Amino acid sequence: MKASSRTTGVELMRASTILYKVTKRLMDIVGSCIALVLFSPIILYIVIAIKLEDRGPVLYKQTRVGKDGQEFELWKFRSMVQGADKIKGELADQNEIEDGPMFKMKDDPRITKTGKFIRHHSLDEVPQFVNILKGDMSLVGPRPALPKEVAEYSERDKERLQVIPGLTGLWQVSGRSKLTFAQMVDLDLQYIGQRSISCDVRIIVKTFFQMFDPKDTGAY
Fold first, then answer.
1. By the 8 A CB rule, do 25 and 17 touch?
2. Across residues 28-47, what is the average pLDDT?
3. How far is CA 187 from CA 125, 132, 136, 137, in A?
4. Residue 170, Cβ neighbours under 10 Å: how many?
5. What is the DSSP string of 141-167?
6. With 80 as the cut, is the pLDDT of residue 100 above it?
7. In whole angstroms, how large is the CA radius of gyration of the chain?
8. Among candidates 156, 183, 158, which has minimal Cα distance to 169?
9. Hey, CA dihedral for 100, 105, 111, 116, is it positive or negative?
10. Secondary structure string (H, E, C) spanning 74-105
11. Which is more confidently placed, 91 or 19?
12. What is the pLDDT of residue 82?
């Protein structure tokens, strides 16, 4: 009787996991399609603004690390001057993330005027809805890291790679760039441990309001 109960419990857990994955994927597809339609006027403005500022490429492609360490090409609207990656090494000593391999700098001189605006409102991330449609990313999950950052991960940090990375996540609505790297990892692992559709919906709603909150200065 006890063995039968345990078997039933395991089957229910498996069914619940499958239902969650299917529902999450459907939410990613539908949500991304809706977002691309709603953001289409803003996308046009961003494309024109980037081109007028320095006539460089509109999109920026970068290799990131996804679930189980699989690499993929992530897309963003270009928010920095051309050749920004080559200048990054000169700014390493001004990194404002106190610990870990991530690099963040509030007054990064590489950021263009248009870039500063779209980064403040997280609009540079809009092309990643295409990454979500492809299945490389999800609407909600840990942010995908750079390969060289992952190379410096501790075993605990690598636990972030258990799930598909997201456009937004728990730490993005819990302090964003004001957090230390260790705090970001803690929040990512907290999300992984408690993830559910209702949790994802709450994070998406908070992210939306945060994007257009004039008092929010957390993103840079």
1. no
2. 96
3. 21, 22, 21, 18
4. 25
5. SSPPBPHHHHTT--TTGGGGGGS--EE
6. no
7. 19
8. 183
9. positive
10. EEEECCECCCHHHHHHHHHHHCCCCCCCCCCC
11. 19
12. 81
215, pLDDT greater than 80: no
Provide the residue type at 31 as one letter. Answer: G
Q: What is the pLDDT of residues 146-164, one digit of tens each?
A: 999 999 999 999 999 999 9
Torsions phi, psi of 59, nearest 5?
-100, 150
- Cα angle for residues 59, 111, 67 (degrees, 5° grid): 55
Residue with tokens 């957390």: 218
51 token code pair: 């081109």
Please give the residue that has the higher pLDDT: either 111 or 107: 111
Outline where DSSP puts E strands in 66-211.
71-77, 138-140, 166-168
From residue 150, alpha-carbon distances to 5, 23, 157, 158 in Å are: 41, 29, 8, 7
Residue 167's SS3 state is strand
- Going by pLDDT thresholds of 50, 70 and 90, the confidence category of residue 101 is low
Rounding to the nearest 10 degrees, give the CA dihedral for residues 38, 39, 44, 48: 160
Instruction: Find residue 140's DSSP bridge partners.
Output: 168
Residue 61 phi/psi, 5-degree rounding, is: -105, 135
Residue that the structure tokens 């046009």 belong to: 44
Beta-carbon contacts of 71 under 8 Å, excluding residues fewer than 6 positions away, are: 63, 64, 65, 147
pLDDT of residue 31: 97
How confident is residue 11, by pLDDT bands cut at 50, 70 and 90?
confident
Q: pLDDT per residue over 43-57, tens digit each?
A: 999 999 999 998 889
